[in-house]
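Justification of resources, computational component.

The compute hours requested in this renewal are based largely on the per-chain cost of generating structure records like the one below. Each record pairs the submitted sequence with a full structure-token output. That output is archived, and it is also reused by downstream analysis tasks.
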Amino acid sequence: MRIPQIDHTTLTGDQQALYADMKQGIGKSFAGFTAIDGKGDLVGPWNPWLSYPQFGGPVWDLVKALASDPKLPKPVREIAILVTGAHFGSAYELYAHIHVAEQRGLSDEKIRTIVSGLRPSDLAADEGLAYDCAHALVSGGVLCELIYDEMVATFGDVATAEFIYLVGLYCMVSTTLNGFKVPLPSDGDG
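The structure output for this chain reads:
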């Protein structure tokens, strides 16, 4: 890792408040993978966000906004995140969201195919649309009208906006993880 692992007992000021908020949010919304190590320190993207709270705080606010009252079906959200993580080759993101995707009903075969960078052949219609939209967004350029219109027709305006912001957030998560070379948790942490 390119920045030190922060010992939560040494935090001051803005870091203490952000740590407390993140720890509470992690406990509420992020289960099934290691986000807090055995000593109580935050790992994954949370450590860099805590290291630079002036940047990490606003990103965390977006995480909370997208997690507070999601409109999208849970498997659709996970497809968006897995497609994004696979595109960026973000090891921690894939590690975490493979676990979440399993909990949210995606088959191992679908997950394995998505994290390999491929489109599963057995996606339900809404899952296939999610894959196509996420893939188009991470590939760059303007999202085509056909996909956008189908997203709105299938999920509604607010959920389509949620989807677009979700992919954007996980692009940020991936670049944070990759830029700071954040490792996977140690075996004894989970």
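The longest helix spans residues 157-179. Residues 74-178 form one domain.
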